[in-house]
Amino acid sequence: MNLYRHGDVLIASIDELPDGCKKRGHVTLAYGEITGHSHRIADASTAETFELDGQIYLKVVAAKAELIHEEHASIELPQGIYRVWQQREYTPERIRTVYD
Hints:
With 100 residues, the chain is mainly β. The protein has one domain (3-97). Helix content is 0%, strand content 62%. It contains no helices and ten strands. The protein has strands at 3-6, 9-14, 22-23, 28-31, 38-41, 47-52, 55-69, 72-86, 88-90, 95-97. Strands 1, 2, 3, 4, 5, 6, 7 and 8 form an eight-stranded antiparallel β-sheet that branches. Strands 9-10 form a two-stranded antiparallel ribbon. Strand 9 (88-90) and strand 10 form a beta hairpin. It starts with a strand and ends with a strand.
């Protein structure tokens, strides 16, 4: 398994998409509610995203895809299938998703 971290987003390679995934219409992995920036694939023709029960999956269909964000260095993801997590944090009131 290969792991990639891009700010508050963690990406792990997986063998295949789970059954029942629905294709999404964009290649944004996470939105930043505070800054308005987002973790996204630079060239939409290089990747597809899917969702199942609130979980996001990424399929890089080209030899590589560049993951970008205005506040982080870009990273290249090789062709393959990935599961995407957004960091969460605990507070006594609740567990919440972290946004840039």
